[in-house]
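Lab notebook, bench 4. We co-purified these components, and the gel suggests they stay together. Before we commit to crystallization screens, I want a quick structural picture of the whole thing.
Request: model the full complex, all chains together.
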Amino acid sequence: MSGGPAGFVKDLAGRRTASLRNALLPWLLWLIPLVFLALFYFYPLVRILTISLTRGERLAEPFIQAFSSATVRSVLWFTIWQATVSTLLTLLLGLPGAYLLARYDFRGKGLLRALTGIPFVMPTLVVAAAFNALLGPRGWINIALMALFDLSAPPIQFTNTIIAILVAHVFYNTTIVLRMVGDFWSHLNPRLVSAARSLGANNWQTLTKITLPLLMPAILAAALLVFIFDFTSFGVILVLGGPRFATLEVEIYYQTISLFNLPVAAVLSMLQLACTLGLTVAYTRLSARVTRPVALRSRQITQRPLVTRRSKLFAAIMIILLIALLTTPLLALAARSFTRIGPERGQRGPDAPEFTLDFYRELTINRRGSVFFVPPVTAIGASLGYALATVVFALALGLPASWALARDSGSFINRALDSILMLPLGTSAVTLGLGFIVALNRPPLDLRASPVLIPLAHTLVALPFVVRSLTPALRSIQPRLRQAAAVLGASPGKVLRYIDLPLVGRAILVSAIFAFTISMGEFGATALIARPEFPTIPVAIFRFISQPGALNFGQAMALSTILMAVTAAGMLAIERFRIADVGEF
Amino acid sequence: MRKSLWLIYLLIIFSLGLAACGPEGTESSRPSPEATQMEATEGPEADAGTITVMTHDSFEISEEVLAQFQNENDVRVEFLKAGDTGTALNRAILAKEAPLADVFYGVDNTFLSRALAEGIFDVYQTPLLEEIPDEFELDPEHRALPVDYGDVCLNYEKAYFEENDLEPPGNLEDLLQPEYEGLLVVENPATSSPGLAFMLATIGHFGEDGWLDYWRGLVENDVLVVNDWETAYYSEFSQWGGTRPVVVSYGSSPPAEVIFAEEPIEEPPTAAVTADESCFRQIEFAGILHGTDKREMAQKWVDFMLSPAFQEDIPLQMFVFPVNENAELDETFQKFLAVPEETAEVSPEAIAENREAWIQAWTETVLR
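Here is the predicted assembly.
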């Protein structure tokens, strides 16, 4: 390149700083996510656990109490069992759905994808009301069955059963599989499958020998997230499962709030964390083993229209299944928000229901002159504001972290940090909420009542999703591409910009949508921190549904419908962004 | 490109930092110590600035009533809603070294002992206690001052009993009769505040020896248990989405059904069972948080909460009743209201001592 010895020495020196930079790079990339986690996760968590454990007389006592308790053992067993079954069922519906979204191009696909994402944001109390309208003792289905077979009692018992818990988990989490696996799948090269076929492999062999192994990283990532969500499930268990079922999270709530037995609650929180950690460590090992670099292809190449009769039949079945399971409960709820039901008889009058906009109108009237009255526009604004902040925070922290992870998945720090990133998902919300109180209580970090805690708390939950969506995509970029770019003189920054970013543009959008929906639907942290003057939509819904009266219930349904509409609009808007899709390939 | 990457990094740090520190000076609920000192030199009368009142989620107040206090005292009142009753109290307890607010409102008699034992309140001997009947003053040292009360009672759907030609239940014992089989839905005392209150009503009424037998009888009569009031009322109660015409709710739910009806109605569609010792009375307290540096204004706020102006605002905002004898009740409210003459009594000390054992015994009896 350069002539003479001087030039050679300069070149050498340059190479040395470059290799130093390469050694330091992972640490630099991890710096900001780690500082964030240290400040807003580990510090509050360690503080509350220490304070809780030292409240007791002897340190060992809560451990003995918790581990010798038959209740705790059965709760732990049930927690693991229901999470496993829920996750398997979610995959059972999600994987064929992901195939549909990944391989076929049809009208209304974006809408279908948005519709299947809406359950994710709905508050549990509202979802319970929706399921009740469908499957409750006086729900549509029971009434229809009773009329059809001339029965005197409702044949389907739904609420307070294990079935309700499993169905609700599938309802909430299928979108995770659809998006994570679906978007990875949509970039897999279909020629691999064609090649296998032409070599004589049948459908089953191609699926098990080619497609599934290649998809494994994305499937594992989605399954892990779904499992942790089910494992720490609270609202679904409490509201739909009823008093006979308890997960660890429910037990932690009971020990903390009802009994104020903080030491035992702390031990249970640590148990829950230990399970999460064990799981993520196992995941990291497994995922490193199954990941193979594959050439990602543009979706223009991978997708085909529905032409054959078989594909049309498959699409029809899948669309009906997805809509029936994920959308009908929500439709029931939206319908209820436009229905006036007899003046005196609640939901069972003989009078025909009438169409009404009263509940929406009522939302804008401060009839009681309350200080805390909030017009729906304000709640929508607050929700969108927090959601956008969460998207920005989560992407800003998640991009460098996943880039570091993808560069060198085998290194010890990456393996360790990868697991650590997942911990906030598996942490008891009750415990962490109290942790904020005892930790962030001194200037400059007196954030206990500050609204900024809301997007920060949401980011803790969103970050694992961002990292899990981005890392498989980044890892699948063939190292040869990066090496080639580097050999041709591209700096790491250039490699990132011209190789990595365009190849994972789609994954970035998926991450953004996850962050957005997590924030839109989050209730626990928001309810504790939100200033009463600026509640988010879920918090405002809760205000209505926790009071008796037709107008209150109707307004809760109306606000829920608004939440669905705003969420769907937000998701469709994000999907319209195109961060350099891999179209040119 | 590398430069712009670092620029993005800096921007993130900056925005995170800004986010963390931003609200501190401008809109944080607790002003920094310096700000408080400045106010102190000017005298609390001249400009007391802001006081913060921490409450549970159900707290409500009218705009005009609040404005009245703010104008009279030249102060801004900020509210901090901190979750359900138990959650809000736990947060106040854990924050007691650096209190989140100046006044806490919303601890009830089922949680009172916890609040007092943890020492979160300062003593305040307000002159307004004279206007409040002694039965509400559960803390003889006047740290927790009674503000309002509400009764947790059985509610029933009138139409169901008319249609089926059945007498509505008149008291707790009635629900053991075979004709009431499968009619009742209650909330789990481990997770629900009305659920706990109703369990306490049965303990107060049947005594420590008899209450579990009563529950055994209810189980035989096919009682349904759910975890929260919302599910009981809106999903299982026959007035709404369910099949059970008797539900554990509040004495004020029937008037609320009138006030929040879709169209104006004359009569509430539901009624409360208010026989002697069939309801449990929840009394809610407020107190000045230990460690406040705005003691004087906090006293004024507490006095205001106990004065007729605020007390008369309570029923239509929060659907509970004022403790001040001089407060007058709203008409609609009074018209449909059934207030039990005699409620089932269990002392806060007994609740604190036995809560866990009672809930456990209840769980073994009813759920296993």
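The first strand of chain B starts at residue 49 and ends at 55. Worth comparing against the SEC data before the next meeting. The longest helix of chain B spans residues 193-220.
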